[in-house]
Specification:
There is one protein chain. By secondary structure, the protein is of the alpha+beta class. The chain has one domain. Helices cover 18% and strands 30% of the residues. The longest helix has 13 residues. The radius of gyration is 21 Å and the shape is globular.
């Protein structure tokens, strides 16, 4: 059901025909322009664009060029209030401890706040970030590179908030979903610590359901994660741990929803 892409289907259809030498050479030199749509990225257009460069890195994520300034929070307490994450200052402390002690194997909950640096400086909040990654199986440039834009903004197209989901690398030694988890980005921001700028993201974790993909669709099922006290499980991570955007779809039931249920669920 999910085998291949629109592009692979078109290529298969073209290959099944008997092209003339002229058509064959034209296709090999330059694919039709419609196959390579270019997004407008930060300017409000589509959320991806092809990158016609050879593969130089597996993935690279960077924040948008322009911070939001006074439109968004300018310190950690203000950002915590904006996101309704009252313990954000503690999450930032644990994050900075991990950045300063990368080989400390302790869980963040085992680290006392007295051991962690308390951050009192200013921050810059961004509405988006871009991920440039190798995607040979998807619509991409000649080197297999593609760029997607990840949004985390309070107002998208003057309608409502938008917080995209992404894959975060949690175990670089494992391949595929064995080494990644799904999270929702609540905000992108940067801070200065020990004289260097650190780009970060406030995320909410998702848990995988089961140890294998769904047998019918071949896709993994995830659900929002909660802490021990039944509050949403948030964290602060470096944007270098983000691989690319993740697009989630609902797990559909077998019975129709009543109008009241649909209003509550969606």
């Amino acid at each position: 059901m999910l085998n291949g892409t629109c592009l692979s289907s078109v290529i298969a259809a073209l290959n099944s025909q008997t092209p003339t030498e002229e058509h064959h050479n034209t296709y090999q030199q330059e694919p039709p322009a419609a196959i390579l749509p270019a997004g407008l990225g930060e300017d409000g257009g589509t959320d991806f664009e092809v990158v016609d460069d050879p593969m130089s890195v597996l993935t690279h994520v960077e924040l948008a060029n322009t911070p939001q300034g006074t439109k968004r929070a300018q310190c950690i307490p203000e950002l915590g209030a904006e996101l309704n994450v009252p313990h954000l200052a503690e999450l930032v402390q644990w994050f900075l401890f991990e950045q300063s002690n990368p080989y400390d194997a302790r869980d963040p909950t085992e680290i006392t706040l007295l051991e962690s640096p308390y951050y009192l400086g200013r921050i810059s909040v961004f509405n988006s970030a871009s991920s440039t990654f190798h995607a040979p199986s998807d619509l991409s440039g000649v080197g297999g590179m593609k760029r997607k834009y990840i949004r985390a903004c309070t107002l998208w197209r003057n309608e409502c908030a938008r917080n995209d989901c992404v894959f975060v690398i949690t175990d670089p030694d494992n391949h595929g979903m064995g080494g990644m988890d799904v999270v929702r980005v609540m905000a992108f921001f940067s801070l200065r610590h020990h004289g260097r700028r650190i780009p970060c993201a406030v995320i909410r974790w998702f848990n995988r359901v089961g140890d294998a993909p769904d047998p019918d669709t071949g896709m993994w099922i995830v659900k929002p994660a909660f802490s021990a006290n039944r509050t949403p499980h948030f964290a602060v991570v470096h944007i270098d741990t983000i691989f690319c955007a993740a697009h989630l779809i609902p797990v559909y039931g077998t019975a129709p929803l009543s109008p009241s249920d649909a209003e509550v669920r969606f």
